[in-house]
């Protein structure tokens, strides 16, 4: 792939000086894929609700799936390298950063963190190559921000587990080969009677198993080039070896969610950059009252504010990445990043649309697509409200949940 040019806003920023050669190489790999493969088709795909399955193996061949994991065909890249990849993919479309997050940060991370050696060998190499697709089934229709209230259950019958229940908004489920399913088990099986959180366990469910069904959710006005599903488990029978041995309680899925939230901190800034670039080009090319609108003070003030928040967001993401590489990143710090990045990216999208004027609502520009996608990103992996409460708890020592 050819190397895509450096975005104009980054030439002001000079982020490259803060990156290693390896980190820069990962970023350029992702930028080239986004520019050459995603951007030429994404407007049509968004309009037609089309997910390009053929891109999955291509992403695997580039080493971008589970790239932050070690071994089993994974690249073992650093946290900042992974974040930069998320930024470049989401600059094209949030749906493709979401795919990489679901596959790598959620499904593969669950197996890598909590799986047995046999489970890792069975699934991770194929998932890293893009030959197999995974999904992560935690959210339920009535649960949302309260996963401890899940009603999906797993009961033991002899040497088997039997799963019953339903999940909603599960990315990739209808095309997945394996689902990581989180379910409540009885107190005896959990080994921690009387602790509801400890009753939650993870299971590897091949999607060809009888009783598993996934239906893509239609009618979405956001993430239209991506797949999210309703999933049902009707007496799904699994061998005892299907349980993830290393995950006990909600700390299991939360450990994976924090990996995905970290990617969003970077990714949302990619969407913001795309919107800012569109507004900047329009400000220089569109003339009103005989002059480019970019020569007007109000427009320049908007562009300056957008650049300011973009630069601050990327610097925050870089700081969190360095903390993560040292093993010092906390859940509260991830909440700072997720809350700030998505909120500011949406504001940048809204300001960009105003500079584009009426044309900004058309598919001639990516801004409305990014704004619509960011509304979904704002909701999943923790809403603004939940992250605000996480920070409130960190500040006061008092939980408002």
Automatic annotation (TrEMBL):
Residues 20-131 form the Acyl-CoA dehydrogenase/oxidase N-terminal domain. One of its GO terms (molecular function) is fatty-acyl-CoA binding. Gene3D superfamilies: Acyl-CoA dehydrogenase/oxidase, N-terminal domain, Butyryl-CoA Dehydrogenase, subunit A, domain 2, Butyryl-CoA Dehydrogenase, subunit A, domain 3. SUPFAM superfamilies: Acyl-CoA dehydrogenase C-terminal domain-like (SSF47203), Acyl-CoA dehydrogenase NM domain-like (SSF56645). It comes from the Bacteria. Residues 135-236 form the Acyl-CoA oxidase/dehydrogenase middle domain. One of its GO terms (biological process) is fatty-acyl-CoA biosynthetic process. It catalyses: glutaryl-CoA + oxidized [electron-transfer flavoprotein] + 2 H(+) = (2E)-butenoyl-CoA + reduced [electron-transfer flavoprotein] + CO2. Its cofactor is FAD. Pathway: Amino-acid metabolism; lysine degradation; Amino-acid metabolism; tryptophan metabolism. Keywords: FAD, Flavoprotein, Oxidoreductase, Transit peptide. InterPro entries: Acyl-CoA_DH_CS, Acyl-CoA_Oxase/DH_mid-dom, Acyl-CoA_Oxase/DH_mid-dom_sf, AcylCo_DH-like_C, AcylCo_DH/oxidase_C, AcylCoA_DH/ox_N, AcylCoA_DH/ox_N_sf, AcylCoA_DH/oxidase_NM_dom_sf. Its EC number is 1.3.8.6. Residues 254-395 form the Acyl-CoA dehydrogenase/oxidase C-terminal domain. Belongs to the acyl-CoA dehydrogenase family. This is glutaryl-CoA dehydrogenase (ETF).
């Amino acid at each position: 792939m050819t190397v895509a040019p450096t975005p104009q806003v980054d030439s002001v920023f000079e982020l490259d000086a803060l990156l290693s050669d390896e980190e820069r190489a990962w970023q350029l790999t992702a930028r080239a894929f986004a520019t050459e493969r995603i951007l030429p088709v994404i407007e049509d795909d968004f309009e037609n609700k089309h997910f390009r399955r053929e891109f999955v193996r291509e992403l695997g061949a580039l080493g971008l799936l589970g790239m932050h994991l070690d071994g089993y065909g994974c690249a073992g890249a650093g946290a900042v390298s992974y974040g930069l990849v998320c930024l470049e993919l989401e600059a094209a479309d949030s749906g493709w950063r979401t795919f990489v997050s679901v596959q790598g940060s959620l499904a593969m991370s669950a197996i890598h963190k909590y799986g047995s050696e046999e489970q890792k060998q069975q699934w991770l190499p194929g998932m890293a190559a893009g030959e197999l697709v995974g999904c992560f089934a935690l959210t339920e229709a009535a649960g949302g921000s309260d996963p401890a209230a899940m009603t999906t259950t797993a009961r033991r019958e002899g040497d088997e587990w039997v799963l019953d229940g339903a999940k909603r908004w599960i990315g990739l489920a209808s095309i997945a080969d394996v689902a990581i399913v989180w379910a409540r088990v009885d107190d005896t099986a959990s080994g921690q009677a009387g602790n509801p959180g400890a009753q939650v366990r993870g299971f590897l469910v091949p999607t060809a198993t009888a009783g598993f069904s996934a239906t893509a959710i239609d009618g979405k006005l956001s993430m239209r080039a991506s797949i999210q599903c309703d999933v049902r488990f009707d007496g799904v029978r699994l061998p005892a070896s299907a349980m993830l041995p290393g995950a006990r309680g909600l700390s299991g899925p939360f450990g994976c969610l924090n990996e995905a939230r970290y990617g969003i901190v970077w990714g949302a800034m990619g969407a913001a950059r795309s919107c800012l670039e569109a507004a900047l080009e329009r400000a220089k090319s569109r003339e009103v009252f005989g002059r480019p609108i970019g020569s007007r003070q109000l427009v320049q003030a908007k562009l300056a504010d957008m650049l300011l928040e973009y630069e601050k967001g990327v610097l925050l993401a870089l700081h969190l990445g360095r903390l993560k590489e040292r093993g010092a990143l906390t859940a509260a710090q991830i909440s700072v990043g997720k809350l700030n990045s998505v909120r500011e990216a949406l504001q940048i999208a809204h300001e960009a649309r105003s500079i584009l004027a009426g044309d900004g609502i058309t598919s001639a520009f990516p801004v409305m697509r990014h704004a619509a996608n960011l509304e979904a990103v704002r909701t999943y992996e923790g809403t603004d409200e939940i992250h605000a409460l996480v920070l409130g708890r960190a500040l006061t020592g008092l939980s408002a949940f």
